[in-house]
Each structure stands twice: as structure tokens, then as C-alpha cells.
Amino acid sequence: MIHTKGWRKPLAIFVYACLSLSSFVNGQSDAGTTYDAKAQAFEFDLGGVELSQDRFLDNQGRTLAYLKDIDVERLLYVFRTTHGLSTQQATPNGGWDSPDFPFRSHVQGHFLTAWAQCYAVLQDQTCYDRATYFVAELAKCQANNEAVGFTGGYVSGFPESEFAKLGNGTLTNGNVPYYAVHKTLAGILDVWRLTGDNTARDVLLSFASWVDNRTKSLSYDAMQKILQTEFGGMNDVLAEIYHQTGDEKWLTVAQRFDHAAVFDPLAAGKDEFDGLHANTQVPKWIGAAREYRATGDSRYLDIARNAWEFVVKSHTYAIGGNSQAEHFHAPNAIAAYLTNDTCEACNSYNMLKLTRELWLLDSDNTTYFDFYETSLLNHLLGQQNPDDSHGHITYFTPLNAGGRRGIGPAWGGGTWSTDYDSFWCCQGTALETNTKLMDSIYFHDDSTLFINLFMSSVLKWPEMGVTLTQSTTYPIGDTSQLKVSGQGDWTMKIRIPTWASGAELTLNGEPLSDVKATPGTYAEISRTWADGDVVEFRFPMSLRTIAANDDPSMVAIAYGPTVLCGNYGDQTLSGTPTLALDSIKRSSDSGLDFTSTADGKDVTLSAFYDAQGYNYNVYWTTTGNFDQA
Ligand SMILES: *[C@@H]1O[C@H](CO)[C@@H](O)[C@H](O)[C@H]1NC(C)=O
Ligand SMILES: *[C@@H]1O[C@H](CO)[C@@H](O)[C@H](O)[C@H]1NC(C)=O
Ligand SMILES: *[C@@H]1O[C@H](CO)[C@@H](O)[C@H](O)[C@H]1NC(C)=O
Ligand SMILES: *[C@@H]1O[C@H](CO)[C@@H](O)[C@H](O)[C@H]1NC(C)=O
Predict the structure, then answer these.
(1) Which of 206, 229, 257 is the last residue of a domain?
(2) Is residue 25 part of a domain?
(3) Domain tally for the chain?
(4) Domain end marker among 232, 257, 282
């Protein structure tokens, strides 16, 4: 059919060129077939979707400015010193990349992914050059291993002896060495698959071979003990290397990183998250989803689905983020933990990846993208500071009364990230988020185009000879226009968000009265499309409350998909304000500002994604009911 292999199209070409013919024929095709047999829908190439001018594109622009400005020599510093090479007079970085930080060199993998995505999205030469130069320099580090007494394939900013300490239980400096290795592998993999760079393939497979050599003779128990220390998504990236190469060896290595203490309760349907470090777990579940696709073993799917279900339903705040002080608490403990260190951003970055994976396996289910939209719009979009030309970010998103973005723990400077003195995990994942904002708007199968997110953008669907232009001011406006160029028979499926009762669809100005637009389903339009056809939809928005699971009297306010917050300027709040629901009135159609009264005083409510530079309030106690005439 049109798309027998779900893998991004150009890859097949790269892989063909990179590997021997027999490994392509015997390996990649098998791996690809098993993998794709499980999928009900497929992603488009990153370069197939272009964002048009809107709030999301602005975020992308600021992140791109940072990616192109940052001094690559400084990012190479810890790798070069560790591998005995000249640092070329570069200044060492500060923050989580400083030469004495235990897992220095974790952030560079995020830069590699972000540069590769920048290239894939925009064909940007600067990003391409940075990605391939960096990988070539890593190859030199790898080539010098023998001289510094490391075993073959190792590439890192800290010495290999950290792994021996991890293995013999003497690691005492808080290092998470496999966490950093995961980031580096994932970054190099993305450079390989998004640019086709052969050096990236060689460095990657050699480093993966180092992981194999380091772990293959360990007993199961010894390995499980190592997995007690945060290791990112080692199972995920190795399953992806299997998928990319077709070599079963990598699947075996991936499965060595299956963490039984976390997987077993999930497979049994038990939420045992209370007290666990949150972001340590999420990448393991993404790995489980990918191991399901690689093996067909439904236990992996149960693990990933149950994890998703528990987190989203019992551990997630109204803005789509989870965790407090980086940890999970008892199920439904939400109002109990409204503090200045809620919602670590990496968790949402990883939950979005997991959500996307699970939806690909269950593409009729709108629940996944209802969550995806909530979290992307209300948590991650506003994680970036729009007043900063390099798009710096906040680690936590405080949800205490009178909270403020850019407030964090002392080690985070209590502020926004910086060019050279932060390099937190959340800064790294934000580089990735803001260079792939378009990757989940559209998906397809052989005859269907799914529209999951509502963002101004242009999609090219070459297999169908279709270009689709989405024009919208959503979520400020409640309509979106989808203009089709090209003709043919296919089905358009539009996600109708669960809150969107009364959704209306038109085709070329005429109501589509025979198309069901039920909230929480996909509206399905099957026809022979003609060039110039225009579908328009309207999702009437209204005010609604989102109650904390553990305290129905504590609610956040949303308008359509957008969580609103009160603007308190520089005022501190001593407790939860009480909002008069019947006082809330929208001030203008061109923005998401509302007038309201809380504790007897006027308060402006605005989109939480735009709440930077002031103290805000998200969770309220309330009086009365909405007055939505
Ligand atoms: C891993 O070990 C095998 C067998 O000893 C060896 O052939 C291979 O070169 C090693 N990998 C690396 C990256 O050194
Ligand atoms: C653990 O490994 C480290 C690094 O190789 C080594 O220095 C240390 O002596 C080992 N400790 C034990 C108890 O084996
Ligand atoms: C965050 O909250 C804690 C506990 O209430 C407090 O000690 C700390 O000073 C707050 N930090 C900031 C930056 O507001
Ligand atoms: C959709 O997925 C969610 C999350 O796994 C699940 O709770 C729900 O039952 C699914 N809905 C349907 C109709 O299968």
C-alpha cells in the first residue's frame, strides 16, 4: 500500500547506503516490519510539516537562536579533557556541565538531537554543520580511548571508572552515569537518522557495543542492582538502535535495562509510584512501548499503558505536568502538593513522547491527544521565557498560590536557565521540545489523515499528492480552517476534544450535518477531495473547572484547552484566593484575558502559557457558578 513501512521515508535510503545489503535485507526489513505491524498510524517526516506564524513558532525561533549561538568548543570541553585531548583553549562551562559536576556531558546529547531536528525541519546548514562537527570530534575522543586507559567505544565527559564504582556499589558522588550515556547515544542516533551522517552511525554503534561489553557478563541480579541508579531510557535508545539497524543484538542489550522493580508492579496493574523519583521512571516506560513494538510481547504494552494511565489520571496537575520536588506522591495527592517545585519539565517532555507512542498503537482513542494538548499548551509552551532571545526556561513550574515561573531550588539559581551556567536536564529537553513542536499535529495511515493538534501549519503528504494548510488563532479563536491542495480519495479525521461540546464542521461553507462531531471522538470526513476544498471547524469554548483529585473545592480554571491564571504582579499571596466564578468575563476576542473578582478584588485572568514575569495563581477555592450567557 502507500506506506508499508512506517519509518520515516528518507531513512530507508540512508540505511541502505550505510549498511551492507544483506544486513538491510535480513535485518532492517524484519525489524521494521515487526515494529510497524503494531502501529495503527505513522508520523510524517519532520521536514513535511512547517509551522506558520504563531506562538509556537516564536518559541522555536528563540531556541534556534540559542542553538546557533552556543560555543560548540565549550560544549566539547569535558569530552576532550576526559579523553586526553586538547580543549583548544575553550572556557569550561558552568552548572551541570562544569568539570566537577558528576554527570557533566549529559546535556550535549540534547544539543545533538536539537541540531539534527533543526536540520530536519528547516534544512538549516548551521545546525547540520554543528551536529556533524560535534560527532566528528566525539569520534576523535573515542579514538583516543586506549591512550587514556578506557575500553573501546566509550565517549563521555567523566572517566569510565564511574561505571566500575556503580557496579561495585562505591559510587558516592551522586553520579548517574548511564543517564548521561543514554542522552549521548540518543543524540548521536538522531544525528544519524535525521542527517544520514555515517560518522554518527560509527560512533553510535561503537558506543552501543561498549554498553553491550560492559553489561553482557553481569548476572541478572547484578544488572538489576545497577538499574537502581537513574539510567534514563537506555532500553528505549537501544530498542531504537535495533529498529534502525535490524541487528537483534541491540534488542537483547535493550532488554538488559528492563527494570523489574518498576516494571513488575505495572504489569500487575499496581500504582506503586509513591516516593519514586518521577522522571527516572518515564523514559523506561517509553522504552517498554518500543520494546513492545520490537517484540510483540503484550506485557510491555501493559506496563507502558498502565504507567500512562496512572500518571495522567492520578498524579497530574491541571496544566498537564506531574511531580513535586521531582517525586511522585500517593495517588491523587494534588491539592496536597501545590508548591514552588511542582511539575519538573522533563517529565512532561517524556510523557508527551510516551503519549505519542501509545496513540500510534491505538489511533482511534482521542484521550491521548487530549492529554498531549493539555501538557504541551499549558506546561511546556510556557516553560520558555518569551522575553529571552535565547528562549531560556524554567525547571519547575510552581503551582503554589502566588507562584512564579523561573523560581527554583538554589542549585538551579532560583531563576531562568542561562547560556553557560545552567545546563539542567530541563534545559536539554526544552531544546528538543522547541525544535519538534510540529511533530504531532498530523499523522497518517494508508488512507487517513489524522489532525490531532490545532496549530497554523502546512503539511505535505507526498504519497497522496496533498498539501494541507491549517490556519487558526486557536486557542484564542475557536475555529480552524483546513485547506486542501491536490485531489484524491482519503479520510480526514479531526480530534474533537472532550470539552468541545457543540463542535461544528463545514465543507466549503456548507454544514457537514452527516459527520458526527462528538466530543472525545474523531470526526471523520471521507470523500473524493477536490483541489481547493476547505474544511472549517469550530469548537465552542467555555469556562470550566478542573478539580484537584484529592480536594474538589480546589480548582483550576480553563477556557477550552487553555488553563487560566490570575495575574498578581509582584504581590505575594498568603493563601489560596477565592475566585467568584460568576465574575469572570472575557475582555476581548483577540486575546485570552478575562476580568474577575477574587477575595473581593479585581484580578485579570490570562492564559497560563503566557504567565511569565509575574506572580500568578492557578488553583482557587470558588464561590458561585460561571455566568456564561
Ligand atoms: C566489545 O567486545 C568485543 C569482543 O571482545 C570486541 O570485539 C569489540 O571490539 C568490543 N567493542 C568495542 C567497542 O570495543
Ligand atoms: C570499585 O571500583 C573502583 C573503580 O574502579 C575502584 O577504585 C574501587 O577500588 C572498587 N571498590 C571495590 C570495593 O571493589
Ligand atoms: C520555595 O518554597 C519553600 C518551602 O515553602 C521555601 O523554603 C523556599 O524559600 C521557596 N523558594 C522560592 C525560591 O520561593
Ligand atoms: C483510551 O485510552 C485510555 C488510556 O489508556 C483508556 O483509559 C481508555 O479506556 C481508552 N478508550 C477507549 C475507548 O479504548
Answers:
(1) 257
(2) yes
(3) 2
(4) 257
Tell which one of 40, 362, 369, 452 to mutate to probe ligand 4, the residue whose CB is within 8 A of the most ligand atoms.
Answer: 362
Q: Separation of 422 CA from ligand 3 center, angstroms?
A: 19
CB of residue 161 inside a 6 A radius of ligand 2: yes
CA separation for the pair 519, 501 (Å, rounded): 6
Question: For the segment 569-617, what is each residue's pLDDT rounded down to a tens digit?
Answer: 999 999 999 999 999 999 999 999 999 999 999 999 999 999 999 999 9
Q: Does a structural domain hold residue 390?
A: no
- Which atom in ligand 1 lies closest to the alpha carbon of residue 151? 14
Per residue in 535-571, is it b (16+ CB within 10 Å) or e — as a string? Answer: bbbbbebebebbbbbbbeebbbbbbbbbbbbbbbeee
**Owning domain of residue 126:** 1-35+70-257
Please identify, by atom number, the ligand 2 atom nearest to the C-alpha of residue 168.
1
Would 358 be classed as within a structural domain? no
| Ligand closest to CA 572 | 3
Over residues 292-304, the pLDDT tens digits come to 999 999 999 999 9
Parallel/antiparallel/unpaired status of strands 578-580 and 621-623: parallel
Q: Rounded to two decimals, what is the model's pTM? A: 0.95
- Digit-coded pLDDT (tens) for 382-406: 999 999 999 999 999 999 999 999 9
Ligand nearest to the CA of 161: 2
The answer as to whether 332 is a domain residue is: no
- CB-based contact 562:592 (threshold 8 Å): yes
Alpha helices in 385-495 (DSSP H): 425-433
